Amino acid sequence: MTPLASPMKKAMASMQGYLEFTKLNPHDEWLPITESRNGNAFYAAFHTLSSGIGIQALVLPLAFTALGWIWGIMSLSIFFVWQMYTLWLLIHLHESPSGARYSRYLWLSIATFGEKLGKFMTLVPTIYLSSGTCITLVMIGGATFKLLFNTIVGKSWEDHNETPLSMIEWYLVFTCVAVVLAQLPNLNSIAGVSLIGAIASVSYCTIIWVVSIVEGRQSGISYEQQEEVSRIARVCDVLNALGIVAFAFRGHNLVLEIQGTMPSSQKHPSRIPMWKGVKYSYFIIAMCLFPLAIGGYWAYGNLMPTTGGMLTALYKYHGHSTSRAILGLTSMLVIINSLTSFQIYAMPVFDNLELRYVTKMNGPCPWWVRAGSRIFFGCLAFFVAVALPFLPSLAGLIGGIALPVTLAYPCFMWIVMKKPDRYSKMWWLNWILGCLGMTLSVLLVFGAVWTIVTRGIAIHFFHPK
């Protein structure tokens, strides 16, 4: 009957409903993805934007060189709608009717397909999408650091062979900065970092396609394939182009982790703010990807560089006519986005490393264990980036293997977990999209292998260029 009785009663009722609906894993409160559950739609939008737009968007015009105008735009639109649908499926699968929350993609896969099959289908693709992306970001960030330095001081250093740092040392500079930022404890704590990365990604994408269009088309460009190739080679080029488009829409292996940072109850399930954040963020992503792909292909056509995409084209074709300030700003924004994306994609790796300790010791990680594990992963990413500098050349192959994570598995998960009526619309839709996604994955792997065998790749160890 005290003045505190009514508020306390409401709080206890709310907590009871929360615990009834959300059966937390006992270790969740000690792991970096789920130890803080005060996320919201804005945090979700920041994380999704920062991880959803990356350097892979800058090579989208390369897909148009094989697909052409009509099929290129159609493919981009179809993949965008398809991956938005699978995002919606994952967000609604995050919470099961029994109250369990699947805050990791791997956990949902195990709950759906069983422990052995779930790990077999999901573990390698999700590890590649997380750790492989971090390794690639080390390469991109280090190379862009060097590009920024040359833009600021000019190329006089290189002309006299007096470049102060080698490419390996630039990789190390990026890794050191990334590891320092990685000391932020959990996924919610990097929301501000993700906001900065989102602003940077939208900004450099806009600058690049606007400058490319304003400067006009290059002389001698063509929108037709010039070289005469066999029919099989042409088909493989189309498959590789589809792989580029599909890989531009990455981040599905992070959506459950981002949603896991949100509070949830029966009256206020986490899927509502999560879907709101994802909708707005992917609208902005579309406003970046479509102008980049269409404007870049219009400006450069078959002259589009195969390495670096539109960032390389900006320096190659407009380096002398464009202000050095704009070029330097673009490079700086790419570096900022690479650093922030590293934090998001590395978080599942940090979570998995700490899970080993938490499970064995049945307690939270001390600060020195957490810091040491993150420094170890940063050093490992740096080592692989230096040892295997040709790794991005295999992106088409590994991307084809990882494609089902984005386009196929969510459809099968919905059928198993939600059990729609046999032969209903949702049943047919998910079976068709799931099978089509698996078929496309096999075709992309075949196209990538054929391209590697027939055209080869430059393999060199411990010699990044």
Task: Note down, in words, how this protein is organized.
This is LYS/HIS transporter 7. It is found in: Membrane. Keywords: Amino-acid transport, Membrane, Transmembrane, Transmembrane helix, Transport. One of its GO terms (cellular component) is membrane. It comes from Artemisia annua. The radius of gyration is 23 Å and the shape is globular. The chain is built from 17 helices and no strands. The chain is 72% helix and 0% strand. The chain has 465 residues and is mainly α. α5 crosses α7, α5 (115-153) runs antiparallel to α13 and α5 crosses α15. The chain has a single domain (39-455), classed as Amino acid/polyamine transporter I. The chain has helices at 5-21, 41-52, 60-93, 105-113, 115-153, 156-159, 167-181, 191-215, 231-248, 252-259, 271-300, 310-318, 324-361, 367-387, 395-407, 409-418, 425-455. The longest helix is centred in the first third of the chain and has 39 residues, at 115-153.
